[in-house]
Amino acid sequence: MFFFLLSLQAATVAAPPAGQEPPRYAECMDLATGDPSQGAAAAAKWRVEGGGMLARQCLGVAYANQKRWPSAAAAFEEAAREAENAHDVRSANYWAQAGNAWLAAGEHVKARAALDAALAGGHLRGLALGEARLDRARTLVAAGDTEGARSDLDRALADAKADPLAWLLSATLARRQGDLQRAKTDIAEALRRAADDPQVQLEAGNIAASAGDEAGARAAWGQVMTLAPGSPMAESARNALAQFGATEK
Q1: Which of 1, 34, 95, 145 would bridge 80 by S-S if both were Cys, CB 3.0 to 4.6 A apart?
Q2: Are 51 and 10 in contact (CB under 8 A)?
Q3: Which segments of the chain does DSSP mark as H helices, in order?
Q4: CA separation for the pair 105, 114 (Å, rounded)
Q5: How far from 104 is each of 9, 44, 230, 244, CA to CA, in Å?
Q6: What is the pLDDT of residues 76-115, one digit of tens each?
């Protein structure tokens, strides 16, 4: 009961305006990224002592950096609800962080709900808006809603065009929908930004193969094996090369 009362008290403490966070927030976030286990302990202590949504956000970051995705998502959701109760627009960012963590956990339904909440208020702007739409597109693909995913991806590319993942996902979806011209255009953008990413090279090979470009497919899949030897992606590339009678090791 004692801890419940402390938690309830913490939830009633008003957070400072964005940009005016207390020094303890920066200290907590530094720990959450540099030493996540210590960061989680510091955030939990701060939360009990009245840190409110900022402490919950820090806890989420600490959990995320330990790849404790469900715990991270839950902490971000708690921060989002507390921010909503305080009519604080930062709730949108917390919902977006929760959605991203649920995606990492493979919980696509929960991720969709969190991302819908992040986008509903209309408070996200710029890159944050683009990344939230990108993440929601990923949940829609998982649900089989390719048309909805295409709509979100097209809008994400307007705000997150510097993110190679946005172009990669757009290219992959275009290939699956049979739009090879769009797929080739978008994978070229992904390659321009992240040619050293084996995921990008793997999809570049898939698109080239779908377009009947054996030389392009061989080159891209060969890059995958060079960039990530021994990885599952390298194995996928090796298996894909077998369609051309390849014998790469």
Answers
A1: 95
A2: yes
A3: 2-11, 23-34, 36-46, 52-65, 69-85, 91-104, 108-120, 126-142, 146-159, 164-176, 180-194, 198-210, 214-227, 232-241
A4: 13
A5: 31, 22, 23, 34
A6: 999 999 999 999 999 999 999 999 999 999 999 999 999 9
| Phi, psi for residue 211 in degrees, rounded to 5 | -90, 0
The answer to whether the CB of 187 falls within 8 A of the CB of 211 is no
Per residue in 171-187, pLDDT (tens digit) is: 999 999 999 999 999 99
For the chain, give the number of residues: 249
CA-based max dimension of the chain: 69
- The angle at the Cα of 210, spanning 206 to 215, to the nearest 5 degrees, equals 75
Q: Whole-prediction pTM value?
A: 0.86
Q: Which of 219, 198, 217, 207 has the alpha carbon at shortest distance from 176?
A: 207
Give the HSE-up count for residue 90: Cα atoms under 13 Å, Cβ half-sphere: 19
DSSP letter for each residue of 144-206: T-HHHHHHHHHHHHHH-TT-HHHHHHHHHHHHHTT-HHHHHHHHHHHHHHHTT-HHHHHHHHH
Cα–Cα dist 98/159, whole Å: 20
Q: Which residue has the tokens 């009519």?
A: 87
Six-digit token string for 171: 């290219």
Q: Give the span between the Cα atoms of 167 and 51, in whole angstroms.
A: 38
